[in-house]
Amino acid sequence: MHTDTRDILPDAPESPCSILPGVKPVLELLESDPSRVETVLIRKGKRGREVDRIVELCREARVRFIFAEAHALDRLFASGKAIAQTGSDMTEPDMAEPGMAAPHADDDLFADDDAAWDILEGRGATRDAGDDDDGLSADRAGERAGRAAQPSHSSHQGVIARVFDAGFAEFGDILRDAPDAPLPLIVALDQVQDPGNVGTLARTLYALGAAGLVVVRHGGAALGGAAARAAAGALEKLPVAKVTNLARALDEADEAGYTIYAAGGAAPETDGKPGSGPRNPFTEPLRTPAVLVLGNEDSGIRPNVAKRCHFTLSIPMARDFDSLNVAQAGAILVGCFAARRQKG
């Protein structure tokens, strides 16, 4: 069951993400250091050569971009932690230049306005295409209507980037450095959507000496305030990589000699030998360096990702119980790797 982790706590750590408002600041960051940019929100109807260039750079760097209503940007600008800019021209041009390129119909980086609400509210995945506001609670629908009525802020110029302050690591660098970590284990999250789960896992990984965390660009939780509160500072210290295609990343890990484990109850076809079942992590001689893949809270690991895994680990239940959430299961499995490492 999804746990709401969005309530603001008085002593909550700051979000590991900041916002960068303005056309030129966002453009300059995409040109100089796109790895720090998590998402770019562009106001619907915004036009101009610089906006075209922002979209082009997002596609080149595989950064997600969203065309959102003005009030979505206004709310993010009003509530976000802005990065100070000096010497930047923050004046909106009097006349927008025409000719902005239309989003590609098959562009997996492009997301619609509903994704903006998901990001603002701490969720990483967009709603299903068939969803609409009829499925929302009356309170939430009213909240959206209220946002729409809020006055527009011009100081963000219709463009805001969410920036991961610590910067994302390159997946190849984590693969290279993992064997030297206290625990040569990388945890990869396949569309884990609850930011609280992501933050809790980051905290566990950092405490036990794991090498890093891998998240997907699309369908995963935003690394905002909810993740930061659960991580208690670990997200700023633990190497975090964001990959476009997790299956390809696992292929790269396999080629580098890593053993790849899937967390779940069903073994992939490649699991050890034909017909073999899931392994008990309490008794299995777990190998390192390794990658541990944890799946979505509801649907688990996607088939194309699961078939890259060499073994499946299934936590045995001592009592009749449905399941553990992804953060709890991940903590147990990472603890098993750490215990095996201590035993040599």
Instruction: Kindly state the number of beta strands.
Output: 11
Hey, roughly how much beta strand do the residues contain? 15-25%
Secondary structure tally, helices: 11
SSE order: EHEHEHEHHEHEHEHEHEEHEH
**What is the CATH T-level topology of the largest domain?**
Alpha/beta knot
Question: What is the SS-derived class?
Answer: alpha/beta
What number of domains? 2
Q: Give start-end ranges of low-pLDDT stretches.
A: 1-13, 81-117, 120-153, 266-275
Strand order of the largest sheet: 8-7-6-10-9-11
Shape: elongated
User: Architecture of the largest domain, according to CATH?
Assistant: 3-Layer(aba) Sandwich
Distance between the termini: 37 Å
Name the average pLDDT.
Answer: 74
Observed structural traits:
disordered N terminus; five-stranded mixed beta sheet; 2 domains; 60s Ribosomal Protein L30, Chain: A; 344 residues; six-stranded parallel beta sheet; methyltransferase; alpha/beta; SpoU_subst-bd; RNA methyltransferase activity; Alpha/beta knot; 17% strand; transferase; 11 strands
What does this structure look like?
It is a single chain. This protein is α/β, with parallel strands linked by helices. It folds into 2 domains: 17-164, 60s Ribosomal Protein L30, Chain: A; 171-343, Alpha/beta knot (3-Layer(aba) Sandwich), CATH 3.40.1280. Helix content is 33%, strand content 17%. It has 11 helices and 11 strands. The protein has helices at 23-32, 49-61, 70-79, 113-120, 138-148, 171-177, 195-208, 225-231, 246-255, 303-306, 326-343, and strands at 17-21, 37-43, 64-68, 110-111, 159-164, 183-190, 210-216, 240-243, 259-263, 290-295, 311-313. The strands form 2 sheets. A 6-stranded parallel sheet has the order 8-7-6-10-9-11, with helices on both faces. Strands 1-5-2-3-4 form a 5-stranded mixed sheet, with helices on both faces. Helix 7 (195-208) links the parallel strand 6 and strand 7. Helix 1 packs parallel to helix 2 (49-61), helix 3 (70-79) runs parallel beside helix 4 and helix 7 (195-208) packs parallel to helix 8 (225-231). The two termini are 37 Å apart. It comes from Nitratidesulfovibrio vulgaris (strain DSM 19637 / Miyazaki F) (Desulfovibrio vulgaris). One of its GO terms (molecular function) is RNA binding. Residues 123-154 are annotated as: Disordered. InterPro entries: Alpha/beta_knot_MTases, Ribosomal_eL30-like_sf, rRNA_MeTrfase_TrmH, SpoU_MeTrfase, SpoU_subst-bd, tRNA_m1G_MTases_N. Residues 20-79 form the RNA 2-O ribose methyltransferase substrate binding domain.
